[in-house]
Amino acid sequence: MIHIAIQSGGYEQNQTILHDIHFDLIPGQLVGLIGSNGAGKSTTIQAMMGTLPHIEGTVQLPPYGYVPERPILYEYFTLQEHIDFLIRSVEQDASVLQQRANKLCETFQLTTKLSEYPMKFSKGMQQKVMLILAFTPLYSFYIVDEPFMGLDPQAMRRLLQLLDELKQQGASILMSTHALDTAEKICDRFVLMHEGTILKQGTLEEIKDDVQSEDNSLLAAFYALLEVKK
Question: Is beta strand 189-194 parallel, antiparallel or unpaired with respect to 30-34?
């Protein structure tokens, strides 16, 4: 189990954005990190990854796969060269990694694009490249930040299948997303954030227990909790 314990964090020494961020990531579970724009989701992820300039707390992560909110690509690398660079950078069996990369390229229908440059791809295709690179290595933990952005319905379906497969293999997954209707269906637990702190966390049933609403959706529960917070 991975325990996240962030007392405070921010981009500048005297500007605290995160306050008392504590939650656990359990093997075989997908946790949805939910919040409005500016709630602190991406800042929390940066703090976890050690890229936030100022942080007080304890975060010890195992090696992990990461899908960033915006694609990070090399301008003069083809898709195959991105994959080759990844394989050389990861201390896992190269032949197994290449087999997984090939399978993922088939899954996301990019096999015919291996000699092309992802920087020239559409937004959705670039997102598929990020998914291929993140999920080619096998890890016990993955961070996926807004993974559905730009994906067509077929690619979304294949991503959901992949996430379920990783869960079945015992991986922990933290997913930040605005797609609450999708998150409600696939996440085991939720961490709801507002103004840099945790508003509520738990299963959907545990979250709904604290609100009075005829609408039983995650979205309704989230906005009901915001009203209580005001």
Answer: parallel
